[in-house]
Design a protein that fits this description.
Helix content of chain A: over 70%
Structural class of chain A: mainly alpha
Order of helices and strands of chain B: HHHHHHH
Oligomer: heterodimer
Shape of chain A: flat
Radius of gyration of chain B: 19 Å
Number of strands of chain A: 0
Number of helices of chain B: 7
Radius of gyration of chain A: 20 Å
Helix content of chain B: over 70%
Shape of chain B: flat
Structural class of chain B: mainly alpha
Strand content of chain A: under 5%
Order of helices and strands of chain A: HHHHHHH
Distance between the termini of chain A: 31 Å
Chain lengths: 183, 183
Amino acid sequence: MDRLAATPGPWALFRAFSSVGLSGFGGVLPFARRMLVDDRRWLTEDAFNETFALCQSLPGPNIVTMSTVIGSRFAGVRGALAAVFGLMSGPVATILVLGALYGRFGAQGRLPEAILGLGAAASGLVVAVAAKMASPLIKRRPMSATPFMILAFIGVGLMRWPLVWVLAAIAPVSIAVAWKFKR
Amino acid sequence: MEVQAVKAAGDILGVLAARFFGLSLMAFGGANAVIPELHRDVVDVHHWMSDREFAALFAIAQAAPGPNVMIVTLVGWKVAGLAGALVATIAMCAPACVLAVLAAKIWDRYRQAPFRAALAAGLAPVTVGLIGASAYLLIRTADANVRLALVTLGAAGVAFFTKLNPLWCLAAAAALGFVGVLR
């Protein structure tokens, strides 16, 4: 076990997470890992992985929920609030400025075409995220995972059924199958 | 007249809060997993923006630093200004954060329980399917012609096969649009 630094308070959490929020272009996770595990040494690598795995299997924006889980472990409710406000305030302020700029100038000159190009590439990035997550699952669990992946895609993507019904229909069966294949 | 306007603004904030509160607890895989649901709400049901505006907001959110949930902030801003941005962001994050903090406490107690692994393994394929559905919807809204589709394909390939910072893909695509070759 590596030596861990002293337990941080709310103010330290706020400052540390605010440094992470704005550094993360195209995903905050690697920056959060470096800050928590390598730089501040508040968590071991294993504890970080375990916390992230938990947040990944729960709903909500993973990195945001993870910041509150870590904040609350170190400093209770105040720590959770400090961490999440630290993480979010910079990005929210930035996106509001960008949104205002888009509202003001987005229709002028060549900008609409630049934004079309941006949108096409942004969609491609989401395709890559889905493919990166899908390929190990398809390889390791072709029978127990792939069908549910395809069903969720068809229900929400092709049929455009409401998410709540798709989740209610697929998730329990998928969890039951995973449970059965475990032993 | 003014009273009515204030009441209407309050109604919109209420709708935003209620919808994102629900989405927060269904967003397995984060904000990127609920893009189809979000699109249906703001474009098809409420007509708050066009397909093209939705694609533009998503593109801006991807190009901005911070967590994926920034698309929610931007949609809230577009629909109801600063108050909308804050209400949407808080409603999208708060329920999931409270759930995660509570779940983490229970989780720690049942460290070795096999249902933990089954739950995570069962939800993983559903998450991937949802993100795939989001990718499909984004492609349909963003790729209005063959050149834009090629940009999507290129960005997906680069992001899948290389470790290049995704910001380069976004910048290159925006530049291609700006010089007018994506028409």
